[in-house]
Amino acid sequence: MTGLRYVYAVCRPFRSALQAQLTGVAGTPPKQLTHHGLVAVVSTVPEGDFTEEALRARLEDLDWLTVTARAHQQVIDALTAVTTPLPLRLATVFRDDSGVRSMMEAREDDFRRVLDRLEGRVEWGVKVYADKEPAAGADAAGPGAAEPGRPEPGAVPGRDHLRMRRSQTRAREDVRQRATAFADALHARLSAFAEDARTHAPQNPALSGATGQNVLNSAYLVPRTESEEFVELVDREKDDVPGIRVELTGPWAAYSFTGESAGEPEVGP
């Protein structure tokens, strides 16, 4: 089959077989391309979708981007189950196998250094959210607050509304401050346990679909053998924290610790 070579990851040779029915981007199964004792996991994709010009247009198509990202992640997840992959950025493509080998030759020292560091390790993600709306009732509005929607006797409706709005604003700010302090303390404890940590920008709720204000979005590099203990640590810390939600994801390939940019796709010769 002719087409471009889409590269998912670089890793060391592994013996365990990938899932028999595994497919990647464009519905094609991944294969291994070996060079100097390293393996690039690649599949063949249509040239019409992955030239530099075509990609500029495709990356504006959210439906296409979502399908492609899921297929890319499916291959990375399968690799993570059997080895330690160094994931490359989404839509890294080359003209042919020779182009992939040239890339591996040029970056061989960096690949080996990062793979040595990541061997036997996985990434866990932790996010902390502050509820946008405080709990309803007297605690949210303060002692003596009127029932929502019903002004106090003799109160001016406009003033009552403003008083309730100010009270709600103060309650939201209190939750945000408590969530930020909780997130800082949690991050310090998890960072002390993990081998390395990265803090990312808060997620955009319009893109993530998550409710609440994201006050912590961090990744932690943890030995695979210590993952259960890490999960238990997060579970202990997130119990019974009113107005604050902790989300744990993983284990993932160590995206945050590879040094690979998640920005523009790479289109090679």
TrEMBL record:
GO terms for cellular component: gas vesicle. Pfam families: GvpL_GvpF. The keyword Transport does not apply. GO terms for biological process: gas vesicle organization. Residues 135-175 are annotated as: Disordered. It comes from the Bacteria. Keywords: Gas vesicle. It is found in: Gas vesicle. Residues 135-157 have a biased composition (Low complexity). The keyword ATP-binding does not apply. InterPro entries: GvpL/GvpF (IPR009430). Belongs to the gas vesicle GvpF/GvpL family. This is Gas vesicle protein. It comes from Streptomyces zinciresistens K42.
